[in-house]
Automatic annotation (TrEMBL):
Species per Swiss-Prot/TrEMBL record: Pseudomonas fluorescens
Cross-referenced SUPFAM superfamilies: Trimeric LpxA-like enzymes
Listed name of the protein: Acyltransferase
Domain of life: Bacteria
Family annotation (CDD domains): LbH_MAT_like
Length: 189
């Protein structure tokens, strides 16, 4: 039995991954009416989509969604721009509107949610309803591993969000924000 050189095996594996991603995109287009996927989009294995209650999801060309990521759109809209990278094990959930512009980098285990639970009074939280506010992530932003972006947040052009930061509010263009809550520590020059 002949052994194949490692470079041949890697080339075959890369082609299999590309073909698998193409087939996943075709399957998603056919099985989800509220999803529109652009050309050359790469969707890794075990990515879960849930688009319900008239929700709309638009993924523009050349974007990548990493494995074990969950994307949920419940009655709202989510738009993922061109050349966006979403790492593995992320959760992005839109009840109103999430806009991710072009060339955004989202590392692994990032959570982005445009809603949170109401908890005024002593009512059971599960039955108290939710509050929503749109999220806007501008061109070229980078959100590092483990960060959370909460409802009503706006992340400016070229901004960097540090690992495990929690964003609630506005981070300006080219600002570097870290911590809980995320605060700007400097501006990129």
């Amino acid at each position: 039995m002949a052994l194949y050189p490692p470079n041949i095996i890697r080339a075959i594996a890369a082609r299999v991954q590309i073909l698998s991603s193409i087939l996943r995109c075709i399957w998603i287009r056919l099985s989800h009416s509220g999803i529109s996927i652009g050309t050359s989009v790469s969707i890794s294995d075990h990515v879960r989509f849930s688009v319900t209650d008239g929700g709309k999801l638009l993924i523009h060309k050349n974007s990548h969604i990493g494995r074990n990521t969950e994307i949920v759109v419940r009655g709202g809209t989510m738009e993922i721009g061109e050349n966006v990278f979403i790492g593995s094990h992320c959760t992005i959930c839109a009840h109103e509107n999430i806009f991710i512009a072009n060339d955004v980098l989202i590392a692994e285990r990032v959570t982005i949610r445009d809603q949170d639970h109401n908890f005024n009074g002593k009512e059971v939280i599960r039955t108290a309803g939710i509050s929503t506010s749109p999220i806007n992530i501008s061109d070229g932003a980078w959100i590092a591993a483990g960060a959370a972006v909460l409802r009503g947040s706006k992340i400016g052009k070229g901004a960097i969000i540090g690992a495990n930061a929690v964003v609630k509010g506005v981070i300006g263009d080219y600002e570097i924000a870290v911590g809980l809550p995320a605060k700007s520590v400097r501006v990129r020059t």
